Amino acid sequence: MGMTRRRFLGYAAGAATLALPFDLVRPDRSHWAAVLDLKESCSLRESLAGYESALTGLALRRTALIVPAALTLPPPAVRSIVSCLQAGGIVLLESGAGFAAGRDFRAHRVALRDYLHLRVEAPVPLWSAPTSAPRIPYVDYTWPSSAKVRDFSRAVPVGRQAGEVIAWVDGLPVALKRRSGRGGTLIFLGSPLGPALWAGDAQARRWLVDVLGLDQPCSCANGGVAWDASAAGPLGVVPVAAPASVR
Amino acid sequence: MKKAIGDNMIRKEWGLEKGLDLVKQAGFDGIELWLGDMPWFQLTTADVEVRELRRKIENAGLVVSNVSTGLHWASPLSARDPTVRGRAVRIVEREIETAVLLGTDAILLVAGLVTEEVPYNEVYQRCVEALRPLAEQAARAGVRIGCENCNAEHRFLISPREFWQFLNDVNSPAVGIHLDVGNIHDTGFAEQWIEIHGPRITRIHLKDVMKKRGRCGDQSVYTNLFLGDNNWPAIRAALTKVGYDGWLVAEMEARYRYAPDQQFGDTARAMDRLISGRL
C-alpha cells in the first residue's frame, strides 16, 4: 500500500469516529461490490450509472469498491479505498480527469500521488492529432482477460512505477494493477470504462465481471481486517451487487 | 398551415428591419429565429433586447414561428466533455427562455452527433438522459422541443422507426420531432416520416433535395422547392392524412447567387402551391 503508516492511521481513526449511515461490512462470507459516488468530485455521472447498472444482481466472490470518474479524492473516499484494500478487497479507481482543466488535473495528480502513490501523466487527446492512417478507437485490456473497449477521447496515461500495466491505447499505458494492503488489489483506469458500460458494451461488462471474480475471497471471511465501508462518510456508497452464495 | 422562413436568410448587410419587410412582402406569416446565427439574436442577447426583437417582428406584421439554433453542431448534447455538454444544455435552456419571450411554443434541437470518435450507443444514451430534464423545463414553459432529423449530417436516428423509438425512450409530450423533409436524402421518404410521427411533429422544415447527388465538396445536395427529388404530392397528402396544420418553415441552404431577394418571393409562392395542393 503506497501510503505512510501515519497517514493511514489518521484515516482509520477518522473512519472509526464517523457516523455509520449504512453497514456494508458483514463479518461472514458475504462479499459486496459498492460504487462510491464522489458527488461533485465525480466528473462523469454516466460512468457511475454504468457501473451500477453493470453490477446489479451479480453474485461476487470478492469484496470490491469501485470509484467512478474520480476527479479529486476527498479524504472520506481515500479512507474507503484504504479500508477496502486493507481488507483484501479490490479497488477499481477510474480517472475522470481526461477533460479536466489544468488546475483540476494537477489536484487529481497530487491526490493520486500522495494518497495512493500512483503516478499519472497529463491527459492525452487521442483524436485531435491529424494522422494519415485511420485510428483504431479501442483501449486494449490485457488482464484479467483481453477486451477491446472504446476509448473516451482522452486518456490519462500511467507513469513508470510498481505494478503491472493492464491496458494500452495508441501505445500508451492507461491502466495499472498493483497488489496493495493485506492482499488487496488496486486497479487504476486512466480511460473511463463506465461510459461504455452505460452504453451497453457487453465486452466492457464481461471484463469488469472477470476483474471482480478474480483472486481469493475477501480476508474478512477469515476473521481478518474488515473493510470499513462506513469510512465513506458523507459520500454515497451504493451497494449494487448481491453477496455471493457461501461455497 | 402557415409559412415562415429563417432569419438566417436575411443578408447581414440588409439589417433586420429591411429583412423583416422583405419577409412580409414576400407573403410569409412568420419568421424562424436562429439563436447564434445573426447579430440580433445571440446567446448574449439580453431579455430586454429579445423583447425588443419581438416588438420589431410584430411591427413588421409577422410572428415568430419557432426558435432554432445551429450551435449544437459545435456543442452537442452528446459530447463526452462535461463542459461542452453543460454548454449544450445551456443553449437549449436559452432557446426555451427566448421562445417564451418571443411568444412561440417550439424550439429546434439537433439532438446528437455521432462521429468516428463518439459512437452511436453513447450518443443515444446521452441524448435521452439529457433530454428528460430539459423536457420537464420545456413543459413548464409551455414549449415543445423538436429534435430535428438531420439524418446523414448527424448520422443519428436515421430511420423514422428509430426516431420513433428515441422519442418513446425520452417519453415526454414536450419532446417531438422538427421534421426536415429535405434531410432524408436517399435514406427514405419524407411522406413516410410524416405518417409515422404525425402528432409528434412540432414544425416542418421545407427544402428539396437531390437524392442521388450526395455531398460533393462544397456543393449542396439541397435545392429550391420542386427542383429536387422529393415527392411533393405525396408529402402534401401525408400532411393531410395526419392532420398537420402547423408551421411550414423554409430552410433554403442553396442560396440564389444573384438577386437574393427574389428567393424569398419564389419560395413563398412555392409554399402557397404546396399548401393549396395544386401540384
Alpha plus pi helix count of chain A:
6
Number of domains of chain A: 1
- Distance between the ends of chain A: 29 Å
As laid out across the biggest beta sheet of chain B, the strand order is 3-2-1-10-7-6-5-4
The low-confidence parts of chain B are: none
Give a quick summary of the entry.
The complex is a heterodimer of chains A (247) and B (279). Chain A has 247 residues and is an alpha/beta fold.
Architecture overview:
The complex is a heterodimer of chains A (247) and B (279). With 247 residues, chain A is α/β, with parallel strands linked by helices. Chain A has six helices and 13 strands. In chain A, the strands form three sheets. In chain A, strands 7-6-9-10-11-4-3-1-12 form a nine-stranded mixed sheet, sandwiched between helices. Chain B contains nine helices and ten strands. The two termini of chain B are 16 Å apart. Helices cover 43% and strands 17% of the residues of chain B. In chain B, strand 2, helix 2 (47-59) and strand 3 (63-69) form a beta-alpha-beta unit. Chain B has helices at 15-26, 47-59, 82-102, 120-141, 151-154, 160-170, 190-197, 232-242, 260-276, and strands spanning 2-6, 30-35, 63-69, 106-109, 144-148, 175-180, 201-206, 208-209, 222-223, 247-250. In chain B, helix 3 (82-102) packs parallel to helix 4 (120-141). Chain A binds chain B through residues 43-44, 46, 99, 127, 134-135, 137, 150, 152-153, 195-196, 198-201, and chain B through 80-83, 116-119, 121-122, 124-126, 129.
Please write out the topology.
The complex is a heterodimer of chains A (247) and B (279).
Chain A: H1 5-17, E1 33-37, H2 45-55, E2 59-60, E3 64-70, H3 75-86, E4 90-95, H4 102-116, E5 124-125, E6 138-141, E7 147-150, E8 154-155, E9 164-169, E10 172-180, E11 184-189, H5 194-198, H6 202-212, E12 236-239, E13 242-243
Parallel strand pairs in A: 1-3, 2-13, 3-4, 4-11
Antiparallel strand pairs in A: 1-12, 5-8, 6-7, 6-9, 9-10, 10-11
Helix pairs in contact in A: 1-3
Chain B: E1 2-6, H1 15-26, E2 30-35, H2 47-59, E3 63-69, H3 82-102, E4 106-109, H4 120-141, E5 144-148, H5 151-154, H6 160-170, E6 175-180, H7 190-197, E7 201-206, E8 208-209, E9 222-223, H8 232-242, E10 247-250, H9 260-276
Parallel strand pairs in B: 1-2, 1-10, 2-3, 4-5, 5-6, 6-7, 7-10
Antiparallel strand pairs in B: 8-9
Helix pairs in contact in B: 1-9, 3-4, 4-6, 7-8
